[in-house]
C-alpha cells in the first residue's frame, strides 16, 4: 500500500481540482505481449477489457488529456479505444506502427501527442501501463501529490516477491512506472528515448532529492507470462 495517507474533505477536494488543471496521462499500451501469447490489453478485469479498465482509472485523476499508445493492426483494441475516446474527449489515441522496437518509441509518440495539444498549463505527466492489475486510484493520487521532479513507484519484481515474502534486505527494489514526471524535463528527454533505452536510466542520473518514491508491492503483479496470468485469475484479480 502507499505510504502516503490522504484525508477526506475540503483539502482533498481542492487537491483534486488542482490536479485537473496541471497534468496529462500517457498510457503505454502498444506492447505485443509475445511472452504471454495473447494481447494483455484484451484481458478482462471486472467485466471490462484491461485497456479500458486502466484508461477509466486514469480518467479518475481528472487529467487535461489522456494519450493512449496502442499497436497497429489490432482492430479490437482500436475500436475499444475509439469508443472510449468518443465518450471522453480527453482521451487521445496514438497508433504505434513500430511496437516491436521497444517501449521508448511508444513514450516518444505519447510525448509528441501531448506537445501537439499546445497546452501551456500541463506541468506533469503521469506515465502508466496496462498490466499492473492491482494498480488503484489511491496510488495514482499519491504519485501526483509528490513535489519532486520525478515521483516513481517502488516495488519488487514478481519473482523476488514470491521468494522473499519477508522483504529480504538483499533484494533490490524496482523504481519505475507508474510515475509522475515534470513535463518540461520529459520534453527535454524525448529525443534520448530510443529502443529499449527508456526513462529508467535517465531518472537514475537525477540528484536523489529530485526523486520521490511511493511504496506499493501490489504493483509487482504485472502480467507477462501464462503462469502469471493463471495466478492472477486464481486470485480473482482478472476474470476467467
From TrEMBL:
Segments forming domain MobA-like NTP transferase: 25-206
Protein origin, superkingdom: Bacteria
One Pfam family in the UniProt entry: NTP_transf_3
Any one Gene Ontology molecular-function term assigned to this protein's record: nucleotidyltransferase activity
Keyword set, alphabetical order: Magnesium, Nucleotidyltransferase, Transferase
SUPFAM superfamilies: Nucleotide-diphospho-sugar transferases
PANTHER family in the record: MOLYBDENUM COFACTOR CYTIDYLYLTRANSFERASE (PTHR43777:SF1)
Name listed for the protein in its UniProt record: CTP:molybdopterin cytidylyltransferase
UniProt source species: Psychrobacter nivimaris
Amino acid at each position: 500500500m502507499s505510504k502516503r495517507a490522504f484525508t477526506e474533505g475540503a483539502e482533498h477536494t481542492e487537491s483534486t481540482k488542482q490536479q485537473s488543471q496541471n497534468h496529462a496521462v500517457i498510457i503505454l499500451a502498444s506492447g505485443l505481449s509475445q511472452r504471454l501469447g495473447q494481447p494483455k490489453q484484451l484481458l478482462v478485469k471486472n467485466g471490462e477489457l484491461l485497456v479500458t479498465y486502466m484508461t477509466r482509472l486514469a480518467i479518475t485523476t481528472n487529467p487535461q488529456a489522456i494519450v493512449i499508445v496502442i499497436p497497429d493492426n489490432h482492430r479490437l483494441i482500436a475500436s475499444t479505444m475509439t469508443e472510449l475516446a468518443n465518450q471522453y474527449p480527453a482521451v487521445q489515441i496514438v497508433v504505434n506502427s513500430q511496437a516491436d522496437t521497444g517501449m521508448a518509441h511508444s513514450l516518444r509518440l505519447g510525448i509528441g501527442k501531448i506537445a501537439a495539444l499546445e497546452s501551456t498549463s500541463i506541468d506533469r505527466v503521469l506515465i502508466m501501463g496496462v498490466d499492473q492489475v492491482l494498480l488503484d486510484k489511491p496510488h495514482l493520487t499519491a504519485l501526483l501529490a509528490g513535489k519532486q521532479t520525478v515521483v516513481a513507484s517502488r516495488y519488487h519484481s514478481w519473482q523476488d516477491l514470491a521468494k522473499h515474502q519477508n522483504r529480504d534486505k538483499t533484494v533490490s527494489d524496482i523504481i519505475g512506472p507508474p510515475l509522475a514526471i515534470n513535463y518540461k524535463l520529459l520534453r527535454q528527454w524525448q529525443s534520448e528515448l530510443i529502443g529499449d533505452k527508456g526513462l529508467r536510466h535517465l531518472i537514475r542520473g537525477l540528484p536523489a532529492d529530485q526523486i520521490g518514491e511511493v511504496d506499493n508491492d501490489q504493483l509487482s503483479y504485472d502480467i507477462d507470462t501464462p503462469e502469471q496470468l493463471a495466478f492472477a485469475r486464481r486470485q480473482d484479480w482478472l476474470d476467467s
